[in-house]
Amino acid sequence: ARRPFHLVTGAGEPIMWYLPDTVPIETQNAVFRDLALIAPALRNSVVQSSLDDWRCSRYLFKEDTRSLRAAPGCINVSPGWFAQGHNVASLNLRAGSSQAMLHEWVSASAHPMAIPSAVLAIIHPHQYQQGLRCMRRLRRRTILKPFVDSWASAFNAMTVISNRETLYHRDGGGCFQWYDVLGTYGQYSRGLLSFPALGIDLDYRPGTVVAFAGNVLRHGVPHPDGERVCLAHYMRKNLHEYVHTEHAQWGVC
């Protein structure tokens, strides 16, 4: 698929929105420029392991060479990760210089973080309002207030995926009725986002935004010809439970 569309189930539930050419090239360039702020954290996230820990396995990343604009790596970012459960990458970003560079990057990334939120406000207003409510309640926790204040998104978590292939998977930790929103950036060709159960391969060209039920649909992304960064925006159910926010229902097409 190359043109915008949305996909609904037989019951009328909208489970995917495909929005190519959404993010302007200036914003894409800014994403790459600002990733230099967290390059050490990205590099440190890559582990010398088997595919059992595939999200950060070195086998799936491009070789880290001087020609790359963005360091290979995969890190999770959230203003309330402590309440969600941790992995190695998120723990490394909670202290010292790593925390300082992360705060600086989040502040610099307000524009690309806001675009998926704007998309969500249109396609799923209930989830958007729920996300804002969650952020307001997180802000009341004094220890989180500085980080929440610089967080320009209705989503409460984000993963930075730089120069990595993504194996087929579903994203746990959310709700069936919630959208994950992916934004893809870079200078590359032959980008694909595949949904094997649907028999769909999307033209995942730079500047594309895709919103879909990540808890339901298996998806994967092979390496393109060139350099690619994905910012994956999503919500964690246990963080909403932490601040007592109800679960959003399906949006209405």
TrEMBL record:
<keyword id="KW-0560">Oxidoreductase</keyword>
<protein>
    <recommendedName>
        <fullName>2OGFeDO JBP1/TET oxygenase domain-containing protein</fullName>
    </recommendedName>
</protein>
<keyword id="KW-0408">Iron</keyword>
<feature type="domain" description="2OGFeDO JBP1/TET oxygenase">
    <location>
        <begin position="112"/>
        <end position="237"/>
    </location>
</feature>
<dbReference type="InterPro" id="IPR024779">
    <property type="entry name" value="2OGFeDO_JBP1/TET_oxygenase_dom"/>
</dbReference>
<keyword id="KW-0479">Metal-binding</keyword>
<dbReference type="GO" id="GO:0051213">
    <property type="term" value="F:dioxygenase activity"/>
</dbReference>
<dbReference type="Pfam" id="PF12851">
    <property type="entry name" value="Tet_JBP"/>
</dbReference>
<dbReference type="GO" id="GO:0046872">
    <property type="term" value="F:metal ion binding"/>
</dbReference>
<keyword id="KW-0223">Dioxygenase</keyword>
